[in-house]
Amino acid sequence: MTDFANEDARAPTPSTRGGLIGMIARLHHTVFSAIERATEGWFTGLAARFAFASVLLLYYLNSGWQKLGDGIFGFLSPSLGAYASILPPVMEQYGFDVAAIPFFPWHVIVLLGTWAELLLPVMIVIGLFSRIAALGMVVFVIVQSYVDINFHGLEGQFIGSMFDRLPDAVIFDQRLMWVFILALIVVNGPGKLSLDHLLAKRFR
Question: What is the pTM assigned to this prediction?
């Protein structure tokens, strides 16, 4: 009888179990509230911009640079590759003769696409009008993915699908993560360590 009494005395009661869980919950709240306060206003935007710079800045700058024409005014006359990359069906329609393609809207689209590929990534990284730049890049990635699927032969496992347990498809894995990083900047801004923050303080 005594053994059973001692065993019951040692067993955790509902109140002690609740106390332990409450202590863990309070510790969790204290630690992560402190982290949240320490990183508030600067970390998310900076981390998103850093991730974008690490993964995509040179990718897009290199791609945009290759679309420029020759000479100092090459930014006004994109290369043949720019048209083939951005407007493959239009190029085919006009026999791959750039001179035969109407200026509006097709030349304008190629010009804007080339400039966007060079300017928007830089604006995001330095944090200048970064919400607009990030929104523009979201649109750019969506259009890029549409062109890759419909005109550059991307298909099957390279497209992938959401919730398919495979993490390496170009569209529904890689580019979905790209869009998520950009959406963080659109929603939360670039953070305090940015030119946008300096401009906001200057013209407030």
Answer: 0.87
